[in-house]
What does this fold into?
Amino acid sequence: MLRLDLSSFSFNLYFEYVAVFILIIMLIYMFVEKLFIMKRSKILLFLISLLVICTSLDIFGAHTVNRIIEGTSNPELFKVVNILETTYIMLLFISVHFYVTYIVHISCGFRYLRRKKLELILFYLPLAIGLPLIITNYFYPLILNYGYDTAPYFELNIFALISVHGIEIIYVVVSILLIYLYRVMFEKKQRIAASLIPVILVAGIVIEMVMPKYLVIQLMFALCIIIIQTTFESSEDMIDGMTNLYNLSEFVRQLNKYFLNGDKKAILLFKMTNFSELRKTYDYVEVYKYCSLVTGKINEFRSNNGLVFTTYSLNNGYYAFVFNRVDLFDVEVSNNLIKAIYMIPACNDYYPTVERCLIEIPNDFNSVNEVTKFVNNYRQAISFKNDFTKYSDVSNDHNLIISNNLDQIIDTALKEKEFKVYYQPIYSVEKKRFISAEALVRLVSHKYGFISPGSFIPFAEKTGRIEEIDLTVIEEVFKFVSSTVFKMLGLSYIELNLSMAEIINPIFIKRVRELMLKYNVNPDNINMEITESFESSELGIINDNLRKLTDMGFKLSLDDYGTGYSNINRFVSLPISIVKIDKSLVDESENEGIKKILDYSFTLVRSLNKETVVEGIETEEQLNRFIEFGADFIQGYYFSKPLDFDKIVEFLYKNNM
Ligand code: C2E
Ligand code: MG
Ligand code: MG
It folds into this structure.
């Protein structure tokens, strides 16, 4: 035992006051924000409470020691101090154990640990060794002892103390290891935080061992709690605000865990396919209320049926139900679930149409990536025969295989120049000949065959590959319009399709300018088609970039008028010269209501001094109807499908000369 004379000693308590203050603020914050619904947050809550108690005990103990040394308290009280300090060390030790428990929960999960005998033993072993060691100190001065003979003294068994702290450090190292093993589940800031925490804790332990006067461990712990609270527990990172359910990122995080652990799960993907109608018909508050009620019904359904599943809200009206036991799930359960959410006392005109797909992991998929791709694309990929599909029944579907491999297909296509530009002629009603053509990209993959732009364009827009694709199309078209062949075909311009995803990017605009200069393009020969599918928050930058394009001399068209993407108020403010009426309006142009809309639209566009192209004209009857409406230009299979370069040249030679 190392014996220290305490005659001229005094503990500095300020660090601990600050620690208690911080911890209590954290507790209040968690209660006010109701951040204790999840198991993991409950552990954190428990950990903080434990720290408050043990810090208070330490303050009380150290304060008493100070007073005894000053001579204002009875040295007999050292007996109480010894009990307080032993309890403090014990609670601190247990806190470190709970810190690791928390890390287990956010990494591999406790369920996994419970399945593994050895790991479970290793998890509790330090506790089993350390606790008896500390408890002995109540009866026999094994670790520390305050006492008084001629002067106050403090006895410390360095070896025992190092053992206790050593075990704590082992725990902390285990926590680092866990974060490392499950690193895919964490964002960068969380990984940084997780490696910072052990450093702070160990620093605290070392400082206090070297300078026992300064009680800093608790403050260090409190700092770590702040770090945890802000990086791991910030609810907006894992909770969907609309439904109050776990969100997509949390879903992906859990998927990573399942794959690492080899957990078996059945996941029901549940999509309200007409959710966008709800968003259009009702205002935000009502939709919010609707979503909360659905969440309530789901929870009610779960407890009424004694089922164990976790619900995730992946997107608007798109849910995932994760069942722990694959055998517990069947169509019956799924049907009852639909019944449960069908009657909701909000948004009364809305009845969800639901599509469901059951997937099983790890049976159906090899990686998280495969699952998320499927989750994102499954509706586009498969046409459902009925509203309940099992993944295993459709996994050989050609379209599904394509949609699962689009990333790599696009990669190869860019490398091997598999993207081809086709041209669909556009007829001028006034000039009675073809005055332009729309460039449409085509992909024939050597491995999968023809792939429709309808499936790879939206994917490329989401994944940021669209710019590369469009730049190859643009380069091809620029070469064409600056060639001598173009001048002989009688065309005024070529229409190019641009996506909003790229118009937002100033670098893309710069590239277009570079290509324009490189091929010495006359901008009068180019018209760029845009659609209006963007967030109003981006309106500023989009208008700026569109302005840049018009300043270069390019004309703009508004594509897909009438599909819900374009709304009239907005297109008035955009610098466009042509409006393209979508095929869907053509298809329904016999309908009296649609006729009225068309009549109104043509009048409006004319009054704004803009021209019209009608897309998707297939019959003579449609052609005459739209000529009567006053359409300026016509495009559609009636005249020609999109043709490859040689064929369009041939077509125009034949029809324009
Ligand atoms: P869009 O710009 O509205 O193009 C018109 C689509 O309607 C084309 O489909 C065209 O082949 C088709 N179409 C034209 N006339 C008829 C008709 O009479 N009947 C029928 N049934 N269809 C007709 P496509 O080529 O499959 O392209 C689909 C969409 O993909 C395009 O819609 C456009 O939004 C996008 N897209 C195509 N090429 C590109 C491109 O190079 N870049 C970008 N960003 N998007 C592109
Ligand atoms: Mg177009
Ligand atoms: Mg269109």
About this structure: The first helix runs from residue 14 to 32.
